[in-house]
## 1
Amino acid sequence: MTKGDGRLWGARFGTGPEASAWALGVSTHFDVRLWREDLAGSRAHAAELARIGVLDAAGHAAIDAALVRCGELFAAGGFPLEPTDEDLHGAIERWLVEELGDLGGRLRAGRSRNDQIVSDLRLWSMEAADRVVAAIVGLQEALLDQAEAHLDWLAPGYTHLQRAQPVVLAQPLLAFVWMLQRDAERVRDARGRTDRSVLGSGAVAGQTLGLDPERYADALGFAGTIENSIDATASRDFVLELAAALAILATTLSRLGEELVLWSTSEFGFVRMGDGFTTGSSMMPQKRNPDVAELARGKSGRVIGSLTALLALVKGLPLAYDRDLQEDKEPLFDAVDTVLLVLPALAGAIGSAVFDRERLAAAASDDFALATDVAEALVLLGVPFRDAHERVGRLVAAAEEQGTALAGLADDVVAHAHPDLPARWAALLDPQAAVARRDGRGGTAVEAVRSQLSRAREAVATLT
Ligand code: ARG
């Protein structure tokens, strides 16, 4: 490459950069998506330069109008990027100089790409956090609606993927609503700590021109300013924190995906997702595949990978800005893009789900699942739990030996465990009654779930 071709630096160098070095350093193809934030920062900066007298009123007006035009070009997809544009900041300055001549070269005073890129990325991250939270709410609403529609449907509750105790279908659906609630709150918390302006920090040590950090914060809508110019330019914990929140979110989405995969197999047969959210096989005409759910599970890997890449990137970097930090953007962008792809698709898949009441009830009605209820009934009759556990264990063994359900045991066998038990036996082994007994907060009784549902709706409403 030659010197003097519109790049931001080069005066002290004998030759232009080697092609391989340039190719390594170019970031324009990915940082171009920060154009809105970059132009907003530049407009705030032009206003500051005018306030301190580095730009006169006419110069400021011309630069500001050019920055607005530049935004229109980007919005229309018509901004002319050149191979000599090392990054977005350089591309915009080159374009300004082409438009305005020497005036365009005045904008750089008092600002470095080191503070500029952090300002851009903080603004972008905050907006991304808002979009992610809105998409989480979309999925929560789909789950809430399904929970409300299936408030009293019996479903099996599992531990170790073995049938454990009966629940109502709303309970696992609401479990995901609460997980997603915390996921959204983590994203929002990360956003709160990102909400600090850094312009005025310069390359590392601030600037000598009298630029006012508070005014940048006001102009760009930040809640406040960062206190230290080195912290401002060197820190990326706001990126790590958002990526960490997204990685945790991705694990929730992956687990929800896994439930859908499992529940839609012929072996479980609990749910069928709509045609628009399942796919066929190119070879096997009968297939209905849960690809959306599988991709929710599969895509979590890359979000976790983004967090890992970012942690490895930042670890061990000396203060303050290092060029390594240019590598912060692609993993963050990818993590945000990925969860924003998965969330609406999963919301649609959940919304389209049709549950099979009979199969769910049948799976919930295995009366061995009520052995714990029997043991707790014995506790209420005064038996120590350790002893009750053993007595019921013997009843389970007897039933297994006879090849019957617990309900099939003769009264005299049941009475071995406790003389009062035969009279209560049928009610104890009714799954509907078992679910209704759990009427405390967080339990599965319909009224408890109904009030949980209304608290869940209130919690979700705080996110919007
Ligand atoms: N493109 C760089 C980044 O994303 C910003 C430029 C800072 N470069 C520099 N040589 N100081 O981090």
## 2
Amino acid sequence: MPLRVLLVGSGGREHALAWKLSQSPLLEKMWVAPGNPGTAQYAENLALAADDVDGIVQFAQANEISLVVIGPEDPLAMGLADQLSEVGIRAFGPNKEAAELEASKAFCKEILIRHRIPTAAYRVFSDLNPAVSYLESGARYPLVVKASGLAAGKGVYICEVLEEAREAVKSLLMDGRHGDAGRTILIEEFLEGPEASVFAMTDGRTIIPLESCQDHKQLLDGGHGPNTGGMGAISPNPLISERARELIERQILLPTVHGMNHEGRRFRGILFAGLKLTPAGPKVLEYNVRFGDPECQILMMRLQSDLLPLLMGSAQGELEEQDAPRWDERPAVTVVLASGGYPESYPKGLPITGLESLEQTPDLQVFHAGTSLSEEGDLQTSGGRVLAVTALGDTLSEARDRAYEAAEKIHFEGKTLRTDIGVAGVAAMERVQ
Ligand code: AMP
Ligand code: GLY
């Protein structure tokens, strides 16, 4: 039966999902709430914000939507999947109780500890004085101060010395830097080692691990500067060996899904583990309950199977019946072009040129994130992360070259990008070979 899909979100992740879903022979029609000029190439964009839960539910009912695919964390944390399920509409993504794994880092830690899943040691605080006393009474540095709630990847402070930690704690608990999201904080052991993003699709029973990725979270080359939502990524992650993969599945992904079941919070959708590969083995930094952005862009480029039956299988609790996904063996790289000023404030409405003359192929796609059309219909910037230039190559180096060559041809005032996405990956590949 042809399927009518409503995709929720407006970032690079959602453009990549729309691009991939548009290739499904099972698709009848796709809408995106609200989408961006990229998604408009394959779907009808709606004037509905991603967090307009009532509006989305009403639209889905009125238009006999077969599956709502929820991209970002906010609508998941608000219970969009629950409300859709109440009116008999299938959703890809966890319900509100399961989405707490991302929405509350304090809850996530409890799950990890209760189910003996490796993670950094931590303490939780909601009051300033005990938090500061803890910092002053022999805590080991560096340490990490985090807002417990959703802060778009920006609520984490790596503190080298007491003074920095005190400032971070004060800005969260006293000055309300991240509003309610930072009213509860975690103070955490600093974990050494490279990072890895690991994704699994699940319906709460069957778990399908997806290909590994490596995000580049900091704004500047070499991992310097403030944390962002992600400035680029590569897949596969050359640091994850076959043995590490098995370990991650057995010690991390499976016990989490089973643990959530055990606690009456069956998890359906994408379980996204942010890991540190420490000398003592992989440890969980955090869980997210959705595809990563920009990791989704490279996963969609590498996924050869039809995405739609997998999403439907997860939503229906019938993932077991799906064949294991097939992947392009070739590596992929995505390079984010961000607005000048991101992740702090940045201008909007700046003209974007050069994109129309780029030839997009199955090996090179430029996914839109923070873009919009001006009144005259010209492409302009409208967000922090503007575009994700994504390429496949026979080698990681070739994928990198292809992505950067394209990235150079796109222009907007203040265009900001890292020049070293995948550089460490290429070096790691060479060591492995
Ligand atoms: P999170 O949102 O918890 O993934 O944190 C964002 C980023 O902060 C991570 O990707 C790491 O780069 C860094 N980070 C968070 N927690 C720790 C930790 N315990 N040790 C080292 N780095 C961390
Ligand atoms: N790129 C990391 C995230 O989506 O949270």
